[in-house]
Amino acid sequence: MGRPKKTALLVAQQIVEDISRRGNTVGDRLPPEHLMLEHYGVGRGTLRESLRYLELQGVLMLKPGPGGGPIVQQPDGGTLAATLSLLLQFENAPFSTIMEARTALEPTIARLATARIDDAGLARLAENLRLTREQLTDQAAFSANSERFHELVAWSSGNALFGYLFDALSGLIAGASMGITYPRRQRELTCEIHEEIYAAIADGDGDTASHLMSAHITEHTTYLEKRFHKALARPIRWDLDG
Questions:
Q1: Each residue of 113-153: pLDDT tens digit?
Q2: What backbone torsions phi and psi does residue 29 show, to the nearest 5 degrees?
Q3: Same domain, 105 and 162
Q4: Are residues 156 and 40 part of one domain?
Q5: Which domain does 170 fall in, by range?
Q6: Residue 60, SS3?
Q7: Is residue 239 part of a domain?
Q8: Residue 36 lies in a domain
């Protein structure tokens, strides 16, 4: 049996439940402190601990000063990336762990995207392909656009867990990308296979999309192992930036 949850965490859970119940959206202010103290039946210190915890989780922004207070935010994959990096540091796991996970996950994600993507999702992928080609000579832009393609495919799978998990994995592998460069031919090949994956998804061909994604991630991993083995072998360290 686990330890009982602290009162502040229980209150934090109730605050999130109340946000959902009221249908609060990003930018909404929560009730003032005196009303929250009365509603949750706790002391000021406990309530503020709950709010600080939710701020760390990306649920709230605590705006100081008159007219401030807790404001609803949209959590993102950064918090998950920070938590995963902390867990993986304690396991002394190398960055190659992330590439192994991507190799296992992304073919399935591409197959799901083929069946579930909508017109808006296809348009976002097409725009990403255009930008990647347009900014091919810019190393930083190429890397960002390339990772963004995979994020878009993950969210197009219709599975929010895959979306957030991939956001986190993408954020973690970015930490290993420091110093990693891609020659012009490698960037062109990436554009080509991204375009082929997009075509398979647009055609509703799940088998081809899955096969192409598997080949793409395997080839990318082989390139990193050959050219940047030390980066992949480096242990993951806790990254609060996510």
A1: 999 999 999 999 999 999 999 999 999 899 899 999 999 99
A2: -90, 140
A3: yes
A4: no
A5: 77-233
A6: strand
A7: no
A8: yes
* Residue at token pair 């807790």: 70
Q: Is the dihedral of CA 130, 131, 137, 140 positive or negative?
A: negative
The span from the CA of 124 to the CA of 130, in Å, is 10
Q: Which two tokens stand for residue 95?
A: 């960055």
List the structure tokens of 239.
């990254």
Residue 44: CATH number of its domain: 1.10.10.10
Q: Are residues 46 and 157 in the same domain?
A: no
Could you please report the per-residue DSSP string of 116-185?
A: H--HHHHHHHHHHHHHHHHTTT-HHHHHHHHHHHHHHHHHHTT-HHHHHHHHHHHHHHHHHTTT----HH
Short-list 220, 9, 193, 207, CA closest to 108: 207
DSSP label of 241 = T
In a domain, 82, yes or no: yes
**Predicted pLDDT at 223:** 93
Cα gap 216→239, rounded to integer Å: 27
pTM of the model: 0.86
Q: What is the CATH number of the domain that holds 206?
A: 1.20.120.530
Residue 226's CB: how many other CB atoms inside 10 A?
8
